[in-house]
Design a protein that fits this description.
Distance between the termini: 8 Å
Order of helices and strands: EEEEHEEHEHHHEHEEEHEEEHEH
Strand content: 25-35%
Strand order of the largest sheet: 7-8-9-4-10-11
Oligomer: single chain
Bound molecules: adenosine-5'-triphosphate
Radius of gyration: 22 Å
Largest sheet: 6 strands, mixed
CATH superfamily of the largest domain: P-loop containing nucleotide triphosphate hydrolases
Helix content: 25-40%
CATH architecture of the largest domain: 3-Layer(aba) Sandwich
CATH class of the largest domain: Alpha Beta
């Protein structure tokens, strides 16, 4: 494991956990997790199925209790200050379920708004219009995608200090997915908010995310600012001569080649690398940063010592 894949994230923490552990029977869902989401960050949380993303978000809301360790949100304890913490959070859960299924959507939103003194009715109206939410529909009759839209209105309309979005576009058709991500981007422009988004669709948050956390088997194998990723995680392409048997002077996350043309995904020290690659006999063609999606794939594919 490359230890530098955890950098101390700057700024006051909106969310921090220390040695957070959660098991379901013998299954470890969270394994001594130290998460740090700076205030104002748009933190993208990725990981394979079963990595612990939903468990983490539910634990922050105290919907699920950790076996040990701490979680703090804006300096408050997730367990001891639960109601105060939850009043500052807008949450889109992973499951497309609405409580109070006998309610009409309009009634559900009115009921929900009572718990949030900052509820902005005009904004809620704009969101329902934009997401084509029918306030007269009975909640029990909604499709998965329609439930998702209602959950988004519930999460955004009180302009929370923290958004916890668990696969927010899951179940939505492609056009609505674009509209939802547009609404989230617009929301961030007008409301100072910290965001923690769990997603498998990293390309959707390419332009939004400024921090990346990669979770595997309940552990964060990487937690970095986007700028650090852009500077240090690089793809170098180049040509080598027959019989070349050296290696780039950096940890190699992946390597492919066709004939003499090679591509290496490298974890570098952030300094220019062209000359150092050339010194190992590589004729360098290009050196580029990865997209957030590319970085996610490279980090997820990385072997770890665990
Ligand atoms: P996905 O990307 O598939 O949504 P995830 O990263 O959100 O996955 P979690 O849902 O947090 O993963 O699950 C983490 C681990 O905990 C998995 O091994 C899962 O099987 C287990 N788990 C989660 N909830 C429960 C539960 N209620 N009972 C038993 N095991 C559970």
């Amino acid at each position: 494991m490359i230890s530098e894949l955890h950098n101390p994230l700057a700024g006051a923490a909106a969310v921090s956990t220390s040695a957070l552990c959660k098991r379901y029977g013998t299954q470890i869902a969270l394994d001594c997790l130290d998460l740090n989401v700076p205030e104002g960050a748009v933190y993208i949380l990725v990981g394979p199925n079963g990595a612990g993303k939903t468990t983490l978000l539910r634990t922050l809301l105290d919907l699920c209790r950790a076996d040990s360790g701490q979680a703090q949100l804006f300096g408050l304890s997730s367990t001891q200050d639960g109601p105060a913490v939850r009043s500052q959070i807008g949450y889109v859960p992973d499951s497309p379920d609405l409580s109070f299924t006998d309610y009409k959507v309009g009634e559900l939103l009115r009921h929900h708004s009572v718990y949030f003194p900052q509820w902005d009715s005009d904004y809620a109206k704009r969101l329902t219009t934009s997401l084509e939410v029918n306030l007269d529909s009975r909640c029990s009759t909604l499709s998965k995608g329609q439930v998702r839209r209602v959950q988004l209105v519930q999460a955004l309309a009180h302009r929370p200090a923290l958004l916890l979005l668990d696969e927010p576009t899951d179940g939505l058709d492609p056009l609505v997915r674009d509209r939802v991500m547009g609404l989230v981007a617009e929301h961030l422009d007008t409301s100072p908010t910290t965001v923690l988004i769990s997603t498998h669709l990293v390309h959707e948050v390419e332009g939004l995310g400024d921090h990346l956390g990669v979770l595997r088997n309940g552990r964060l194998i990487a937690q970095l600012e986007r700028s650090e990723l852009d500077r240090r995680l690089l793809v170098a392409r180049g040509e080598v001569s027959d019989g070349w048997d050296l290696a780039p002077p950096f940890p190699v996350l992946s390597h492919t080649h066709r004939g003499r043309e090679h591509a290496w995904t490298l974890w570098t020290d952030g300094q220019p690398i062209e000359d150092r690659l050339a010194a190992t006999g590589i004729t360098v063609r290009s050196v580029e940063s990865l997209t957030l999606e590319g970085a996610t794939r490279a980090l997820l594919a990385m072997e770890t010592s665990s």
